[in-house]
Each structure stands twice: as C-alpha cells, then as structure tokens.
Amino acid sequence: MTDTPSIDRRRLLKLGLLAASAVGGLSIAACSRETPSGDRKTRLLRVGAADATNSTGLDPRSASAGASMIVLRHVYDSLMVLEGDKYQLSLATAVEPNADATRWTIRIREGVTFHDGRPVTAKDVAYSLRTLGTKPSNRASVYADVDVDAIRVVDTHTVEVPLRRPRGDFRESVLVVFSTVFPDGTTDFSKAIGSGPYRLDRSDERTVRLLAVDNHWSGKPTVQELEITRIGDAATRLAAVKDGQIDYAVNISATGAQAEQGNSALVIHRGGPANANALSFAMNQRLAPFNDPRVRQAVRLAADRQALVDTALRGLGSPGADVVGKGLPGYSPMIVERRRDVATAQRLFRDAGVKELTLRAAEIVPGMMTAAKLFAQQLAEAGVTLKIAEEPVESYYADLAGLATHPFQAFYYSNRPAAVHLAATTTKTAIFNVTGTGPDYWSRLAAAQVSPDDAERAAAFDQLQREFYESGGDLLWGYQETLDISRAGISGVRMNQSIPMFDRATVD
Fold first, then answer.
1. Cβ atoms 460, 451 nearer than 8 A
2. I need a labelling partner for 104 at 20 to 30 A (CA). Which of 328, 342, 366, 457 fits?
C-alpha cells in the first residue's frame, strides 16, 4: 500500500502548527488512491483539531473535547450513542430497567473483539463502567448515581448496574453521554486497546495515526488510515487545509468560513443547531436584581436574537429560545422563537426599578464580546445601561466554584438534549448552575428523572423546559454551530455532538 505523505514538520513550523493549543449530551476532502481492483478508497485522511486539554490523549478517563475525543470515538466502542436526533444502541444490544429504574440490565453484542484479539465480554463492560465512574476519572460525575462497587456480571454478555436512586433517564443521561469500553484490568491506556472501527498505529505528543479495522462489527471503514493532529489555532487550521498540509480542519471561525465561502477548492461543513455551542447571557435567579422574575423577562424581551446571530456569528448560526437542546431528542415543541418586545421590556424594567446592569464577559467563544456590545445597544433601547466587565479569557473559568456567585455573565454550553443538559447543569451539585436554580426546582427535576416510563418522563421534562423558557435564567440568544472546512469532494462524514466521524467518508 502506498502512503500519502504525512505532515511535513518543516512546513508545519512555517505555518505555526506547533503553537500551543487553545482551550476550546448531526464532507470533507482527503488524499485518495485506487486499489488494485479499481474500487475507490480513501487511503489517508489528515485531520487537524484543537484540544481542550492541550494534548492528544488516549485515556478515556481524562480526554476532553477536541482531538482527543475524535481519537476516542474512533478507537473505542460505546454502549450507546447519539446519532442525529436519536439515541442508538451500539455495543449494547439492550438496556432495560427493573420496575422502579433502580437496577439496569445491559446486554452486549456477541462476537466482538478488541484490537488485540480478545473477545469483548460483560467483565470488560463492568470494569469499564467502574473505572469511568470512579475518580480521578473526569467522567465520575456522570456516574454519580451508579453504585459502581455493586456492578455485577450476570453472564458472558450481561451486566447488571444498580443505582443509588431511581433514574429512568439512565440510558440518555449516563450511557449516551459517555460509555466507552476497554479491556478488564486496563490501567495503561498508551496502547489504546479498544474495539472500535480503528486501531492505534502510532502516536506522539501531537499526532495520532489510526488504521482501519477490516472486521469491525459495524462494517469495514472506507477511510483506511486516519491521522489526527492537534492544531490549537483556528486560523492556522484553516491555513493548513489551504496549504495542503491537512485535508480537514475541525472548528474554524465564522470569520474564516465567511472569507472562504466563494472558494470552490474548499467546502464548509455546517453542523447546524444539533452540533453547536448554545450561547447565553446567564442571569442568576438567586441574586439581585435577577431574583425578580420581571427583570429576567425584560432582559429576554429586549434581545434582538437574529441581529446578535447576524452580527456576532456572521449569520453562521441560528437564534436560540432560552432552552438548550434545539435539534436534539426531547426538545419540547412548546419552545418557540421569542419575539422582541422593547415596549414591554421597558415597562418591566421601569416597574422593577432597574436602570443599569453589569455583564461579566470575555471572548470565551469567537464573537461573544461583539454580542455583548451589541446587546448593550439593544438594552439601551429599553432604557437600561449595560456595563460590560471584560475579563481575560484565560482566567474566566479559573474559579469554577465562584461561577455561581456572579449575577449576570456571558456563558456557553455544548448543545445537548434538554434532559441531559438540565441534569448536568441545573442540579444542587452542578458546577455550572449559573442560572441559580433552587430547591423547589431540584425536587421537580429529580421527580422527572425517576420515571422509567419514557412518555411520562418526556412530559415531565417538557414541563421543566417550559418553566425555563418562561422564567428561567438563560437568555440563550444563539447557537454557534460547528464550522469545519475541507478540500472539496468528500462526503459521508457524520457529526455527533460536534465530533466528526470519518469511518464512512468517501471521495467523490
């Protein structure tokens, strides 16, 4: 087999690709070769992405957003996944609760093997769940309600998972969020032994090379070799595609995408709301003046969301309606686009005695400061002066425990299904409870999570979403969709929660 040349180190240096990485619940182009039989195959696809941990890690316990997560999704199978707008079984063939959803039975596929030839068994699944659910794993909070020490292997392909309290949403809020499976006893993840569609060929501190697994249970990948390189800067990733150093850049800026819209040699891939950041000006309901529901309503009514999207995101996004989850399973049909009403906002501010607000903000995502400044102009039309307290990006999240002490701040969330988002960010122990939900709400959330009946649980979460829409603390003004770019001619790249999957990519 003839390799397409890897990234040239000298040219990487020329492009600045060795710069430090910047921090970051749905079509690309690459080099291709003809096989001797004449069937078209994508031999090597070279991908550039940033990484939130400034590494290209192989360890499921610590990998975060970006390059590391792309590697994990290709090397390891998960028990369940989110595909488009549906929750799907993957390595699992069934996930079923007992009568009160305190104990779940997971059955896994038969005949699946790890990359080293060992069969995947229930013992491996049990070990993986225990490991992911135990600190120092950064997935431990996802498994907080799982009694990891009591997970039981029933037979070769069946695992029983007991919970500390009823969770009817165990599938979507735990397994779909993160449930990679690795061999029993694994403590050294440097060899990245998984059962996914790709196996590890080699890696260094910046680049991971993966090879297709021909006998994977889901079918043989069309991309034979996948090379993922950590490139921290969005402009540098774009330059690398244009220069031919990589074939696909993950997450470029709206400015970069707009500049290349007329370039026929490149294709811009828009993720839509399902693969986006949900951008908010978050109001803490526990702190004045946002403990007054009139003020929260006035802030939401004062916003011209389309103008914010058009200006801050250069039109490459969509307006939000104050509840996370647009385009994903479980998003309530009761959530509709909110119309701007300056006159009502002005009256509500006047009745509440509010003439001035202060917004804590930083360029935490591209365009956020532009949005904050435009929103100040919009609030002025409603009779309120907005002061913007700008902070350095690098220290904006330095004090996680202190996030809930700010009355009003720019914030963003990864767009996830509403039930998953509410469970992760609005509970009593959630670090990112920046909207200041309280005990009454927590009780309703817990009650919604308990029901093992899908329809009953969906109705309860519909009501919680309606509550957030009408009186919650988020002015969720827009969805900043993932913008990837590639050379022209590649199709079949699937995107899941902003993570691209390349195993079905093909060259036109």
1. yes
2. 328
